[in-house]
């Protein structure tokens, strides 16, 4: 999948993978890759500036945690982040419905029912 396909949706992707539990940067990259079936591969140079921006906006909070003797910055969704994510999901559903209506129009059936629907 083209890397630019993520543009405009990165915030929603990051917030969505952080919804269940806090994660550190590499785990965020891995979660996006796993959830997308390997179609989306984010780079550290892409996500860390976005994570810092989302934290400045109050949508995420971060803390330093030790894991296996290494300190890692973990990111967690805030209440504002959860609200923003809900809005992003609604906007995404509206967007995909509109694009789907154009790319895959429902062909009217000669008897007044859309093609593909039951009798």
Number of helices: 4
Mean pLDDT across all amino acids? 88
Strand order of the largest sheet: 1-3-2
User: What is the structural class?
Assistant: alpha+beta
- Percent range of helical residues: 40-55%
Spans of at least 5 consecutive residues whose pLDDT stays below 50 are none
Order of helices and strands: HEHHEEH
Strand content: 15-25%
Protein name: Helix-turn-helix transcriptional regulator
InterPro entries: Metal_resp_DNA-bind_regulator, Tscrpt_reg_PadR_N, WH-like_DNA-bd_sf, WH_DNA-bd_sf
Task: Describe the overall structure.
Pfam families: PadR (PF03551). The chain is elongated and about 70 Å long. The model has no long low-confidence stretch (mean pLDDT 88). The longest helix has 25 residues, at 79-103. With 119 residues, it is of the alpha+beta class. The N and C termini lie far apart (38 Å). It contains 4 helices and 3 strands; from the N terminus they run αβααββα. It has a 3-stranded antiparallel beta sheet with strand order 1-3-2.
Topology:
Elements: H1 10-18, E1 23-24, H2 25-35, H3 44-56, E2 60-67, E3 70-77, H4 79-103
What's the gist of this structure?
With 119 residues, this protein is α+β, with helices and mostly antiparallel strands.
Features:
119 residues; alpha+beta; 3-stranded antiparallel sheet; 4 helices; 3 strands; 15% strand; Helix-turn-helix transcriptional regulator; Tscrpt_reg_PadR_N; Metal_resp_DNA-bind_regulator
